[in-house]
From TrEMBL:
Source organism: Bifidobacterium cuniculi
Domain called N-acetyltransferase: residue spans: 18-171
Top-level taxonomic group: Bacteria
Transmembrane segments: none
Keywords for the protein's UniProt record, in alphabetical order: Acyltransferase, Transferase
The protein's name: Transcription repressor
């Protein structure tokens, strides 16, 4: 029997390993080796991730399948958000699932948890950024009512890419 657990985590090594593996699986083919290596070394360094984990306005939720880390979600409120938003908003900064666990409902469970967290915190809007060429992720987010409301830059090494900003009602 497969068991799935979602729980907050502060384990920086698990978060780092999942971050590097999932980002590489998803985006290596669309970035140069140098840009990818620079991004991973900078954005997913243990000290950077530890500061994020220690931020009281951020929460990391780990998804495990039969006790094995399979992915995670990072949500932000307040000053931890990657773009300025007022007090009504919760940001889903990352939902990362290892390729071998995609299609098993983990992303759906994590997204439902994000909406539940937003409601518990009294937030009325949920927002996120998604790469403009990531059609699968955009379709997934659309199932939760997210619509495109803008865009912002996302730096991968020397390559400035465009992320779409998408928002949904938290209700």
């Amino acid at each position: 029997m497969t068991t799935v657990a979602l729980a907050p985590t502060r384990d920086v090594r698990v978060v780092r390993d999942l971050s590097v593996a999932t980002f590489t699986e998803t985006f290596a083919a669309d970035n140069t080796e140098e840009d990818l290596a620079e991004f991973l070394a900078h954005d997913y360094a243990e000290d950077v991730l530890q500061r994020e984990i220690d931020d009281p306005d951020s929460v990391f939720v780990l998804a495990e399948v039969d006790g094995v880390p399979a992915g995670y979600m990072k949500v932000n409120v307040g000053e931890a958000q990657t773009e300025p938003h007022d007090g009504r908003y919760l940001e889903v900064q990352r939902i990362y699932i290892l390729a071998g666990y995609k299609g098993h409902g983990l992303g759906t469970r994590l997204m439902r948890e994000a909406f539940a967290m937003a409601r518990r915190l009294g937030k009325t809007r949920v927002w996120l950024g998604v790469w403009e060429h990531n059609d699968a992720a955009q379709a997934f987010y659309g199932k939760f009512g997210f619509v495109r409301t803008g865009e912002h830059g996302f730096q991968v090494g020397d390559d400035l890419q465009t992320d779409w900003i998408m928002e949904a009602d938290a209700a």
